[in-house]
């Protein structure tokens, strides 16, 4: 879902950049530049969120794996 949002925002940035290239009015150019920057900031924020989600998932997977190893070691000790 976040990736779809990023893809859509990137398309919008490209369209705004094309508009900016064709625009001659200085005020409109400033506005388009601001919109482009805002979208790029939003994209960066979403990409950071994805990275945080992925890191949290890696930590959970490591914790699960460690818990399984600990349980196996405990089970082995009890058998001895």
Tell me the layout of helices and strands:
Blueprint: H1 2-22, H2 26-79
Count every beta strand, where a strand is a DSSP E run of 2 or more residues: 0
Name the helicity range. over 70%
Number of helices: 2
Q: What characteristic shape results from the CA principal axes?
A: rod-shaped
Give a verbal description of the structure.
By secondary structure, the protein is mainly alpha-helical. Helix content is 94%, strand content 0%. The protein contains two helices and no strands. The chain has helices at 2-22, 26-79. Helix 1 (2-22) packs antiparallel against helix 2. The protein is rod-shaped. The termini are far apart. The model has no long low-confidence stretch (mean pLDDT 95).
């Amino acid at each position: 879902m976040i990736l779809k949002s990023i893809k859509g925002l990137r398309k919008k940035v490209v369209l705004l950049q094309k508009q900016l290239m064709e625009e001659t009015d200085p005020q409109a150019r400033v506005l388009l530049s601001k919109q482009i920057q805002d979208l790029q900031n939003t994209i960066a924020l979403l990409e950071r969120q994805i990275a945080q989600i992925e890191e949290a998932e890696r930590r959970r997977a490591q914790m699960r794996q460690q818990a399984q190893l600990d349980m196996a070691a405990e089970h082995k000790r009890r058998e001895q």
